[in-house]
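Example record for the data management plan.
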Amino acid sequence: QVQLVESGGGVVQAGGSLRLSCAASGRTFSTYTMGWFRQAPGKEREFVAECRWSYCSTDYADSVKDRFTISRDNAKNTVYLQINSLKPEDTGVYYCTARVPPFTWQYWGQGTQVTVSS
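Corresponding structural encoding:
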């Protein structure tokens, strides 16, 4: 069982930056593929980024490439999402998630709110 706790959300002006953090419990953090999803008001939850294996092979949604960076610190059991050049359409609840390949996303955090004002 893995517990995930996100932090770092907030209200920021368009063009600004945020760094989201997700602290994970458990002794096998480095074996998990970690990811971030987001859900905008009135929309379905969507994939943002993932970090595979302990060395963090990454994949991103097209809408966030070149602006978002996912990374992990296995010593701290933490995954990060650096968000730059924020746009109003980035507004939503950002969720941290984890899975053990080849299974689908198994564990979810409670989410952290990101609000981008224009």
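Summary line stored alongside the record: The two ends are 40 Å apart (CA to CA).
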